[in-house]
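Researcher: Here's a chain I'd like modeled. Treat it as a single chain, no partners, no ligands.
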Amino acid sequence: MNAREKLIVKYVNDLKEKCNVNPDMELLKKVTVGCGPSIYNSDSSTVAVTSESELSILRNKFLIKKLGLSDEDKLDQGIQAVIEQYGRSNRHKYRAVFYYLLVLHFGKESVYQ
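Model: Modeled as a single isolated chain. Structure tokens:
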């Protein structure tokens, strides 16, 4: 099992145990690959939801640029909904899991087809 596959096992566990989501494995793999090398770095592999700069990156680089959403799509409300779903008190929110949940929240699975 390579490093990415080991991480995906962790992501599946988080989705099932913390988010009550039974993941679509193909979509999760594609979202994980889309995160690039950030998933292997201890700092960038998680999302700091208390950081305004991190939330800005989520909004501008992922939701707008990658998923093709606009400000009219209530981006901040979607981010907050995912934070609640993942667990506000959960300090370690994996980037790939967070992005996966955002893709589901906004119904943008087609971006990864």
